[in-house]
Write a structure and sequence with these properties.
Layout (H helix, E strand, L loop, with lengths): L1 E5 L4 H14 L2 E6 L17 E5 L5 H8 L4 E4 L6 H6 L2 H21 L2 E7 L22 H20 L3 E6 L2 E2 L8 H11 L3 E4 L5 E6 H14 L5 E4 L3 E4 H12 L6 E4 L14 H4 L9 H14 L1 H8 L2 H10 L7
Parallel strand pairs: 1-2, 1-4, 2-3, 4-5, 5-6, 6-10, 7-9, 8-12
Antiparallel strand pairs: 9-11
Helix pairs in contact: 1-7, 4-5, 6-8, 6-10
The protein binds nicotinamide-adenine-dinucleotide and thymidine-5'-diphosphate.
């Protein structure tokens, strides 16, 4: 397939691009704004095989140029961190909503297949059981609200214009190359450096963990076999309270539990996420990586790839960290 992959220099987008180039021989153009979360290094292994366009999805000229002769658009591009959306929602509205609109317009003009990468957070928090695609959308943060707005716009382009759109909603991803503002890489790098591990509130919030390559495969399945106009949940095989995730990371890193530090809770913090993936299972997808194995291999990857994270931990990230947590990182 000829694909325009937006946000393909980020954590999940780059895993998807690597898999599509290697396993499906797709012709891929990546359009990416290279925000703090986007890095050309993430595409290093497939660089000779792809076209890279540096630009923003909210820029119609950049999108038209990047679209070239693509048959389909897969949109990963987004501002993705809940904490940043609480302190500064503006960029979330621009990228996640306005940017999606620009992509949909280009897809409509050219009659392209369109796949929106979305999140379980559009359903809000659930005490028991799991969300299905029929569950009401009830987002709680500016991040999830803008992702929900985008999902609704995508669905409207199917209903109104007959555009062949699909939505694939993933649960919390983890794996190599995730920016260390997110729980798992943050805790791994702090544990390796001997910095404290900041746990929000009581640490009993539950997340449904999905290995990044499993999500990339799920998105590929929806692209190839998903029914236009439909949304598909793609949830991980395991759920775990944050504090247990943190304890496992400490043990895998050989660090002491005295590094755990309970800090002020996130405002409006969702208690639990959980997705039912039976609809996507019906298309032949199932998660291959259990959390225990995926977490161990993720810790190994960060331990072995300091070249990837050292420039982050010694750059602007330190200022972000100090501002957000009110304490400096001990070492880089
Ligand atoms: P990420 O923050 O690692 O990467 C985002 C990428 O988008 C970066 O390469 C960035 O440079 C690019 N980008 C940002 N704004 C852009 C713009 N205006 N124009 C073009 N490019 C832009 O994010 P991620 O974790 O890889 O998430 C990718 C997608 O998957 C997002 O849509 C996110 O909502 C969704 N998702 C993430 C998770 C998760 O746990 N990380 C779970 C489910 C769904
Ligand atoms: P995060 O990785 O930001 O993903 P999301 O908020 O999209 O689920 O956070 C995962 C969980 O970890 C969430 O319950 C918040 C919690 N958390 C902490 O306890 N400490 C932290 O420093 C961070 C970043 C997250």
């Amino acid at each position: 397939m000829r694909l325009l992959v937006c946000g393909g220099a980020g954590f999940i987008g780059s895993a998807f691009v690597r898999a599509r180039v290697r396993e499906h021989a797709d012709q891929v153009t990546v359009l990416d704004k290279l925000t703090y979360a986007g890095r050309r290094e993430n595409l290093r292994e497939v660089d000779p095989d792809i076209r890279f366009v540096h630009g923003a999805i909210e820029d119609p000229i950049a999108v038209a140029d990047a679209a070239g002769d693509a048959e389909a658009i897969v949109n990963f591009a987004a501002e993705t961190h809940v904490d940043r959306s609480i302190t500064g929602p503006e960029e979330f509205i621009m990228t996640n909503m306005q940017g999606t609109h620009v992509l949909l317009e280009v897809a409509r003009e050219r009659g392209l297949r369109y796949l929106q990468v979305s999140t379980d957070e559009v359903y809000g928090s659930i005490e028991e059981g799991s969300f299905t695609e029929r569950s009401p959308l009830a987002p709680s943060s500016p991040y999830s609200a803008t992702k929900t707005g985008a999902d609704l716009l995508v669905a409207s382009y199917f209903h109104t214009y007959g555009l062949a759109t699909s939505i694939c909603r993933g649960s919390n991803n983890y794996g190599p190359r995730q920016y260390p503002e997110k729980l798992i890489p943050l805790m791994i790098l702090n544990a390796l450096a001997g910095d404290s591990l900041p746990v929000y509130g009581d640490g009993l919030q539950v997340r449904n963990w999905l290995f990044v390559e499993d999500f990339g495969r799920g998105i590929g399945v929806v692209l190839e076999r998903g029914e236009p106009g439909q949304a598909y949940n793609c949830g991980g095989p395991d759920e775990m309270p944050n504090i247990d995730v943190v304890r496992r990371i400490l043990s895998l890193c050989g660090a002491d539990e005295s590094l755990i530090e309970y800090v002020q809770d996130r405002p409006g913090h969702d208690r639990r996420y959980s997705l039912s993936s039976s609809k996507l299972n019906g298309l032949g997808w199932s998660a291959r990586m259990r959390f225990e194995d995926g977490l161990a291999s993720t810790v190994d990857w960060y331990r072995d790839n300091a070249w990837w994270w050292e420039p982050i931990r010694s750059g602007a990230y330190r200022e972000y960290y100090e501002r957000h947590y009110g304490r400096a990182l001990k070492s880089s």
